[in-house]
């Protein structure tokens, strides 16, 4: 669940960020969806990362966007592998937003040539997932640092837990009473 939420947040923030940095003009969508034009246009722009990365004027914007997406999604990952899963979810959400954008702009896309539509869908999702792996450049190192910080902040485990009763019984725990003689070893209110 964390990975899905991280992927959604990364896709929303990354889409908004790329639209602002590229100064993409607003696109007109049907009435209830017009307020989400930033997400739709940003998803289209991020799925055009190959073109943007090869352009001498926009490559730095695309690099910064993917690094920012990785930095945003890293706190949702508990490990390096979770960072990869979160990045894949970013790609799925970006692709879904881009396909939604295409369908809102041209509803006939769904009803025309079935083979062309299916190829379009496969290419959109494949490119979205492939491009989302660019966020791993910043996501994995930050996930490793956060994982180490979490480990250091956890309370250390006790080296040895052992309770010895006056009757000589030895327990590898902190029992309330002795199982051998029935003597009370500690009060219930005492912390272990």
Number of strands: 2
Structural class: mainly alpha
Helical region count?
8
Q: Whole-Å distance between the termini?
A: 33 Å
What is the string of SSEs from the N terminus onward? HHHHHHHHEE
Q: What is the alpha-carbon Rg in Å?
A: 27 Å
Assembly state: single chain
Key words describing this protein structure:
8 helices; elongated; mainly alpha; two-stranded antiparallel sheet
Structure in words:
- 62% of the residues lie in helices and 2% in strands.
- With 192 residues, the protein is mostly helical.
- It has 2 domains: 2-153, no CATH class; 157-192, no CATH class.
- The chain has a two-stranded antiparallel ribbon with strand order 1-2.
- A hairpin with a 5-residue loop joins strand 1 and strand 2.
- Helix 2 crosses helix 5 (80-105).
- The radius of gyration is 27 Å and the shape is elongated.
Summarize the structure in short.
The protein is mostly helical and 192 residues long. It has helices at residues 2-22, 37-46, 49-54, 59-73, 80-105, 108-111, 114-132, 136-153; strands at residues 163-164, 170-171. The chain has a two-stranded antiparallel ribbon with strand order 1-2.
How would the blueprint of this fold be written?
Elements: H1 2-22, H2 37-46, H3 49-54, H4 59-73, H5 80-105, H6 108-111, H7 114-132, H8 136-153, E1 163-164, E2 170-171
Antiparallel strand pairs: 1-2
Helix pairs in contact: 1-2, 1-4, 1-5, 2-5, 4-8, 5-7, 5-8
């Amino acid at each position: 669940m964390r990975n899905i939420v991280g992927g959604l947040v990364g896709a929303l923030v990354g889409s908004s960020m790329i639209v602002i940095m590229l100064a993409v003009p607003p696109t007109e969508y049907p009435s209830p969806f017009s307020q989400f034009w930033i997400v739709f246009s940003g998803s289209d722009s991020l799925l055009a990362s190959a073109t943007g990365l090869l352009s001498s004027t926009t490559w730095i914007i695309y690099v910064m966007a993917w690094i920012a997406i990785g930095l945003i999604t890293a706190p949702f990952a508990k490990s390096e592998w979770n960072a990869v899963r979160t990045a894949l979810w970013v790609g799925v959400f970006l692709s879904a937003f881009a396909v939604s954008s295409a369908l809102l702009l041209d509803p006939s896309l769904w009803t025309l040539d079935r083979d062309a539509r299916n190829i379009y869908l496969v290419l959109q999702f494949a490119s979205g997932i492939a491009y989302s792996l660019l966020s791993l450049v910043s996501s994995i190192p930050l996930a490793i640092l956060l994982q180490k910080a979490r480990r250091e902040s956890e309370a250390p485990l006790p080296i040895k837990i052992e309770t010895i009763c006056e009757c000589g019984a030895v327990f590898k725990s902190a029992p309330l009473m002795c199982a051998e003689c029935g003597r009370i070893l500690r009060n219930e209110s005492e912390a272990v």
